[in-house]
Write a structure and sequence with these properties.
heterodimer; A: mainly alpha; two-stranded antiparallel ribbon; 13 helices; 2 strands; about 0% strand; B: alpha/beta; 3-stranded antiparallel beta sheet; 17 helices; 11 strands
Chain lengths: ~280, ~425
């Protein structure tokens, strides 16, 4: 009897943690999708009305589209910039340590702080970027006020913030490339570009894929940047899915509907992750 | 020895648990929260002291609403945590219905003497406005700040206007004349007016909504769980505002981060309330001449000009141990005499009928003629519809407002159709 109980006792701390902080919230969220609950009123059964609303909610679909637009801009930009800088920092240059530290610094700075700084840079009237544009004879640009530019502006900022992390990952990847390969290629008369595309890229392919996966996860959870910088505007052009779920839950207190959106979004991410996993297995 | 330790541990634990168990003490006093605006605190202190001196055995304890990001959030947290006051005197009319449906407010019409008091204080249209769809009344109309248009008298005279513009056409004509690139850098830097371009829902209470009420003779936005704002009046308002932004008569940039652009002559008008008077009086440059006029209306408008009154009302929470006593205190705090004191201390208007003709207040209005303009507007003031979804209704309208008015990406018809569809989705059962 004692032998049977002891293993359960040993796993019980985690089991309790799992039940209280994971299983119950997930189960309760699923239950909420069939209710109308605004925190202060009693929970009312609402059938499938939240799901009907989701299907017809243009803003939610726009927020999903925005999230994908962000990913489409952010991921290639992230890879190109960080790989280019990693390649430079992999050379024997002066002050290499300083540059590596400088590029990594934004990663450890609070997201809100970075966002506020960039908000100042992007300011229409007195932002540094527009002042520079006027100085060199161009017109002001609505970095955060033009619906077509706001999301790319946020993507640029997010790239700047995270580039240091991916530089480190690429540096690790670049250092796995055996130097003999480059030497052999040089003997064959290969150019720098040929060496990069024919040797470096194929060898660091797993690193690139890891960066894609990490950027995708980060992109799906886009929240702080639009929340602080634009509030999801202009014209919902920077409304990310997570921000919209937050808005429904903690601004309007539509807990049932927010749970429905959250569940749908979680299933969508799961689908994307499964597709990515298939690619990895194929590789 | 071990068992003694165990028994003493259990005993200590039980004592601790019994100490922490909450026993709600019977309270004899009424707890009253006011807003945390300085003048309102001063008035609340005055009226509570006055009451407590007369009613020594039925005291009211006053405190301003605890600090938080917004008083609405503090009240919500208090409702969730069951730590509400008995009386709260700064409830936005649009929030009352959701609290009423949550069952946390006292139906005041069930209390003795309330309806007589209400009919004495308000006219039937106001009573109809504050009546919940369930037929009960959960709020006492307390104060209003009608939204009107402040204008720079001298600037309009310079443009050749002896009277302020009243219609959209007149305003657009004035706007064209007033617009200027003062410093010659190629950018317009003087506009006829300004409204916040941010999409935040409550900003629409100070531009679209009062203009809509003016154009529609006080029509509702939602009725019987259905959007009813997709009408000719709303189209005209969207179209008018759209022209203002399209022609750069209103700036798209945020001017609210600068010094007062109205006093600096950068803009010549603003949609605002009576709170503008003490501010303008305090900071106006020498020779600055200003006045107030009604909200603008479409060219073919007939009848009175309605506006939004930004009403803040008083509620009694169900937690109150003695709702009848709370009501007696409120009937005292809102009597004619104390309303006069409220006017004098806060420069805000009590929401009572015949405010501009009541002899009690004539002396105040003769000393404050600009306040009288607002008082005369009281009978044409509207609050909000009684709907628990009102914030989101305004938010959805605001999103379409941004698309149509600010960015010109949609026609007024498209924007209002989309807003109507989105609002009706809120009421899906």
């Amino acid at each position: 009897m004692r032998k049977k109980i002891i293993p359960y006792l040993l796993v019980s701390p985690y089991l309790i943690y799992f039940l209280v902080f994971m299983a119950f919230p997930v189960g309760f969220s699923f239950f909420l999708t069939f209710t109308n609950w605004n925190i202060i009123s009693p929970i009312e059964y609402a059938g499938l009305s939240n799901y009907k609303r989701l299907v017809n909610d243009a803003v939610f679909w726009k927020s999903l589209l925005n999230t994908f637009i962000f990913l489409i801009i952010h991921i290639p930009l992230q890879i190109i910039v960080s790989l280019f800088l990693a390649e430079l920092l992999n050379q024997k240059i002066r002050l290499r340590g300083f540059f590596r530290a400088a590029f990594f610094l934004p990663v450890i700075v609070s997201g809100v702080v970075v966002t506020i700084i960039w908000q100042q840079l992007y300011g229409f009237d007195s932002g540094l970027l527009n002042r520079l544009l006027i100085k060199i004879g161009f017109s002001k640009v609505g970095w955060l006020t033009d619906p077509n530019l706001a999301m790319p502006s946020i993507a640029i900022m997010a790239t700047w913030k995270n580039v240091g992390l991916y530089i480190v990952l690429f540096l690790v990847g670049l250092q796995t490339v055996p130097p003999q390969f480059y030497e052999a290629a040089e003997l064959e008369g290969a150019t720098h570009m040929q060496k990069f595309f024919k040797i470096t890229l194929p060898i660091i392919n797993p690193t690139i894929f890891m960066v894609v996966v990490l950027s995708t996860i980060g992109g799906f959870s886009l929240f702080i940047e639009p929340y602080v910088m634009t509030g999801g505007g202009p014209m919902n052009s920077t409304m990310s899915a997570v921000l919209y779920i937050y808005k429904q839950g903690f601004f309007y207190y539509h807990m049932g509907y927010a749970a429905t959106l959250g569940l749908f979004f979680a299933l969508l991410i799961l689908a994307v992750v499964i597709i990515q996993k298939k690619f990895v297995e194929r590789d | 020895m071990k068992s003694i330790r165990l028994i003493s541990f259990i005993f200590s634990f039980m004592i601790l648990v019994s100490c922490s168990s909450k026993v709600e003490k019977r309270r004899d006093e009424i707890i009253y929260w006011s807003s945390n605006n300085t003048e309102e605190i001063e008035f609340a202190k005055y009226v509570v002291n006055k009451w407590n001196q007369i009613n020594k055995n039925q005291k009211v304890k006053f405190q301003p609403v605890p600090e938080g990001q917004s008083s609405e959030e503090v009240i919500l947290a208090a409702v969730v945590g069951k730590t509400t006051p008995d009386i709260y005197s700064n409830m936005w009319e649009g929030d009352v219905e959701s609290y009423a449906r949550a069952g946390v407010l006292v139906a005041l019409d069930t209390l003795e003497g309330f309806m007589n008091f209400l009919y004495e204080r308000c006219d039937s249209s106001v009573i109809k406005e504050v009546t919940s769809p369930d037929g009960h009344i959960y709020q006492i109309p307390w104060k209003i700040n009608p939204v009107m248009m402040i204008y720079n008298v001298n600037e309009f005279r310079n443009l050749g206007f002896l009277e302020p513009p009243k219609t959209y056409s007149e305003f657009l004509e004035a706007a064209k004349k007033f617009q200027r690139d003062v410093n010659g850098d190629g950018y317009v830097d003087r506009w006829i007016g300004y409204a916040e371009v941010v999409v935040t829902w409550w900003q629409r209470l100070f531009d679209f909504y009062p203009l809509y009420l003016a154009a529609s003779n006080g029509a509702p936005l939602v009725k019987n769980n259905k959007a009813v704002f997709n009408n000719e009046a709303a189209k005209k308002v969207f179209d008018f505002l759209r022209k203002l932004y399209k022609n750069n008569y209103f700036p798209k940039e945020r001017l609210s981060v600068r010094q007062d652009v109205f006093l600096d002559g950068i803009i010549a008008t603003r949609f605002t309330g009576p709170w503008e008077i003490p501010h303008t009086e305090k900071f106006k440059p020498e020779g600055f001449n200003y006045n107030f006029t009604n909200m603008l209306v479409p060219d073919n408008h007939e009848g009175p000009v309605y506006t939004y009154g930004d009403p803040k009302n008083i509620v009694i929470f169900k937690k109150c141990p003695n709702p009848n006593l709370a009501l007696r205190f409120l009937m005292f705090a809102l009597d004619e005499e104390n309303d006069l004191k409220f006017l004098e201390i806060t420069n805000q208007l009590p929401h009572r009928k015949n405010l501009d003709t009541n002899p009690k207040y004539l002396s105040y209005f003769s000393r404050n003629p600009k306040m009288k303009i607002f008082a005369s507007e009281v009978k044409y003031v509207k609050g909000t519809d009684q709907s628990p979804q009102l914030r989101e209704v305004f938010d959805l309208i605001s999103q379409e407002y941004e698309a149509c008015v600010i960015y010109g990406k949609k026609t007024p018809e498209e924007a209002l159709n989309d807003a109507e569809k989105a609002v009706n989705l809120l009421f899906i059962k």
